[in-house]
Amino acid sequence: MKAVVWQGKRDVQVMEVPDPTLKEPTDAVLRITSSGLCGSDLHLYEVLTPLMTPGDIVGHEPMGIVEEVGSEVTNLKPGDRVVVPFQIACGSCFMCGLGLQTQCETTQVRDQNMGAPLFGYTKLYGAVPGAQAEYLRVPQAQYGPVKVPEGPADDRFLFLSDVLPTAWQAVEYADVPKDGTLAVVGLGPIGDMACRIALEKGARQVIGIDLVPERLARVRARGAQVLDVTEHDDIGEAVRELTSGRGTDAVIDAVGMEAHGNVAGKVAQTVGGMLPGKLAEKAIAKAGVDRLSAFQHCIDIVRRGGTISLSGVYGGAADPLPMLTMFDKQVQLRMGQANVKRWVPEILPLLTDEDVLGVDEFATHHLPLSQAPEAYEMFQKKADGAVKVVFRP
């Protein structure tokens, strides 16, 4: 089959690789019909390269048709149309029972002291072959895949794999009061969708913050206020001017380590990528990837006693947090990978013909898998208005 294969920093290639097969009785094999390109994939493309191995298949947003199932998968059959969550969880352990599928005790990547494995990600998360491919082996298929109806195009349901539950959890964790105010820092796919969800759930005022004109325009068109960071010397003060001088009740950080951060952080990332083998892994995993400028803005923006919901991915431990400020402002902080199956029952009822969240038009680009190298470059450079790319093998 053809798959998008990581070969090195800023180097992904479409190559022929062996077709996946059933390995466990709880496996299924999926024929991919659509697969998303995520901002997290750019981490692999750029800053997390020491944690990758040439030949790794990338991608973690799959949708397709079941081709084959293992003997213990009784809830699926060949021909079923499914979306697959980006994390792999069993559904029956203590953590899954709490709705914390990202912490699944059956599948945790214990040799790396990490939570549930992810499709198409680094060795920290199990190095499981990913979904930007023609076929995908799905472990724990007795629980993970979500059956969806025939009829609507893939885009109606594809974003249940990651974008929708990640944005939904970000809004839930923000805990915006009734008729409250929310700022969303970073208007890529997650930040954009978080603005839509917050408005749908009744937030009185949603302020989207970014510097890319196309992203600001998309969010403004859906009913949120926007602030262009290039037009304000003090973005925190700009938010306070819109919120009676207090700041917003909650802030979502949808940027993470892809932030336009400080020079020192960028140097750390680059040096980490130059170190040999295990030294590079340690530098990137423990010390070198964080650029916390976006998170610092969140701390400034949120009102006293407010909540910061962190959905952007941070990966290291180098940058100090302003703990005195956070303590003094009595900031509440929630974070984590999205627990996809926890939120699917709440999201599915919104994916009707009314399309209240605008998922049918959410993707800016639909491309064949063969154009993956160009798509990664375009997405990284934020060129051609790229906000969300969907591959169709």
Structure description:
Residues 259-275 and 283-290 have low confidence and may be disordered. Strands 3, 5, 6, 7, 8, 15 and 16 form a seven-stranded mixed beta sheet that branches. The longest helix is centred in the middle third of the chain and has 12 residues, at 163-174. It is globular, with a radius of gyration of 20 Å. The protein has helices spanning 39-45, 94-97, 155-158, 163-174, 189-200, 213-221, 235-242, 263-274, 277-288, 293-301, 323-328, 340-347, 372-381; strands at residues 2-8, 11-16, 28-37, 56-57, 62-69, 81-83, 135-138, 146-147, 181-185, 205-210, 225-228, 248-253, 302-310, 332-335, 365-367, 389-391. β9 (181-185), α5 and β10 form a beta-alpha-beta unit. The protein is of the alpha/beta class.
In short:
This protein has 393 residues and is α/β, with parallel strands linked by helices. It has 13 helices and 16 strands.
What's the helix and strand layout?
Elements (H helix, E strand, L loop, with lengths): L1 E7 L2 E6 L11 E10 L1 H7 L10 E2 L4 E8 L11 E3 L10 H4 L37 E4 L7 E2 L7 H4 L4 H12 L6 E5 L3 H12 L4 E6 L2 H9 L3 E4 L6 H8 L5 E6 L9 H12 L2 H12 L4 H9 E9 L12 H6 L3 E4 L4 H8 L17 E3 L4 H10 L7 E3 L2
Parallel strand pairs: 9-10, 9-12, 10-11, 12-13, 13-14, 15-16
Antiparallel strand pairs: 1-2, 1-4, 3-5, 3-7, 3-16, 5-6, 6-8
Helix pairs in contact: 4-5, 4-12, 7-10, 8-9
